[in-house]
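Researcher: Here's a chain I'd like modeled. Treat it as a single chain, no partners, no ligands.
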Amino acid sequence: MVEALLVVGLLVAVFVGFNIGGSSTGVSFGPAVGSGTLSKTTAAALMSAFALAGGWTVGRNVIDTMGGDIVPASSFTLVASVGVLFFVGLALLVSNTFGVPASTSMTAVGAIAGLGAATGTLNADVMLRIVGWWLVAPVVAFWICAVIGRYLYPYLDAAFAIDRSAGGVVALDGLRPRIADDATTREIVGTVAVLVIACYMAFSAGASNAANAVAPLVGSPEVNLSVDAGVLLAGAAISLGAFTIARRTLDTVGNDLTDLPLLAALIVETVSASLITFLSYIGIPASLAVSATMCIVGLGWGRATRTTTIGDAVGEAIGGDGHPDKRPEVSVNALAAERPSKDGGVPRMGEEQGDELLAEDLFDAGTTGRVVSFWIFTPTISFVCSYALFAFVPL
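Model: Modeled as a single isolated chain. Structure tokens:
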């Protein structure tokens, strides 16, 4: 009986890792795939390698937090571990079915918190610390990128603009890849940068999310799964999800949520990956999906606010001159705008016009709303189901 339940536990852990791969691959490589830099298959292969590296190194700190700090390790009986992992996988499966990159860490912590609340073993101090960082991290991500978008992005765009050639950077001679003849130096450098930072995001995703698949089993005294074995199991399951179900979330992040230029992809990936790697280092299971999307929104919002100076905005807020047609137009479509100057310079703050910042949509409001709704919905499902199971079902 115990052996059969252990097999079920390992299968459920693979199920969770499979869904983590589906969700995190879209967040990590969606901008690179959406900008035409990578194919979905190549993105899945890179995700597999770098997620394993992240879990093997920094991810051990998150495993310690989720495997024994939120609730005592003694609470993770074999039955409890299977139950927690099942509800995590169920919530993520629902999210991935709708093509939304779910907050894997929030979902896993929700299930563990449900166990702790039902059994009276929840460490409130640790939960408050985790939830506090959940609230702070998206705000930090938004404002860092908003400042970059308002004050630095136009200058970076003018200095490092990359005009993609029609045929792409890589061409094939049979099965042998080579640099395309019409690829520019800037395009090659930009493409390499996008690839490097996308792999960095995959590393941070593995560091944060490997624990979500195996922490209950690693923490369980009945299972006695080593951290090394747990990370390898999580890495294999994430790889499986990356090559299969991730294709839908790659479409959502890479095509539906945003039409992202290469420069914007670099900024979004760098800021969000650095934030999550830092949180993983201090043992906080945090959401790469939330941070990356808030970076996208913040970068576009900051870019669009260049149509007005802070002084003008404050004046309008206080009273203004009462003429609606003179109010600054702020659009979130700004990142797709053409470079506004004819001489290579950047217009000063307040000189850009709203219609100059309108091009392809930066993000679709309906898609963004759907993503944010699922960030709230999936951890709620895992918490409620986990609490109901352990509180009302005799196990």
